Amino acid sequence: MTIYYSLTFMLLASEMVTFCLLVAPLPYSLKKRLFTFLTESKIVAKVAYGLKISFIFVAILFADALQRMFRVTAESDLARHNKQGMLSDIRTDTGIAARKFYAQRNVYLTGFCLFLSLVLTRTFYIILDLIHTQEEYAKLKKATASSSRSTGAQSEDQAKEIAALKKEVEKAQKQQRDFEILKKQSAQNNAEYDRLATELNDLSGNKSNKRVD
């Protein structure tokens, strides 16, 4: 394996390890710190920029390996067609089979490296959006809890005010009933006083008439 395909294999292995770390069931706090570091670190940004350039070279290698695989496959089919009915050369067949194997291996290696890079990018942003959604949900839950507590406190205050108003109304009604009772008693007392005064006047008038006779 040439050096650039060896580097491609190392890149593929690092992508597999990174993918396993991304999908690992880490605690929320640890995952949040990890993704915050990955999104805000300048060193990670420079590494990501270098990886983008390397993926461009991997794409070029993929196109070259794909072209070689098609050419070797065509040569293998042509050699098999030309050797029908003739004794096959083991060395030639082995060489063609080896070239075909290497060409397919390079295609698979570079192709999976490119595919996994797309999967990693999409997975990273999905998890990042999930973390942001969880943060917004936590904030909304906290705000709802605080508003419910304040609403509960307000309802308790309103209940106390209503109870106090009911007591005042009952007190006023009691005073009103007492006033009506006193009013009736006063009217009765006035009527009784008038009656007694009338009787007294009548008695006084009768006595004075008897003295004149």
Automatic annotation (TrEMBL):
Bap31/Bap29 cytoplasmic coiled-coil domain ranges (all copies): 160-207
Annotated ranges, domain BAP29/BAP31 transmembrane: 1-139
Coiled-coil annotated residue ranges, if any: 155-185
Pfam families, per the entry: Bap31 (PF05529), Bap31_Bap29_C (PF18035)
GO biological process, one term: intracellular protein transport
Function, as annotated: May play a role in anterograde transport of membrane proteins from the endoplasmic reticulum to the Golgi.
Transmembrane listed as a keyword: yes
Keyword Coiled coil on entry: yes
Compartments, as annotated in UniProt: Endoplasmic reticulum membrane
Signal peptide segment: none
InterPro entries in the cross-refs: BAP29/BAP31, BAP29/BAP31_N, Bap31/Bap29_C
Protein species of origin: Hypholoma sublateritium (strain FD-334 SS-4)
Membrane topology designation: Multi-pass membrane protein
Family, as annotated: Belongs to the BCAP29/BCAP31 family.
Membrane-spanning ranges: 7-28, 48-66, 107-128
Keywords from the named record: Coiled coil, Endoplasmic reticulum, ER-Golgi transport, Membrane, Protein transport, Transmembrane, Transmembrane helix, Transport
Protein name, entry field: Endoplasmic reticulum transmembrane protein
GO CC, any one term: endoplasmic reticulum membrane
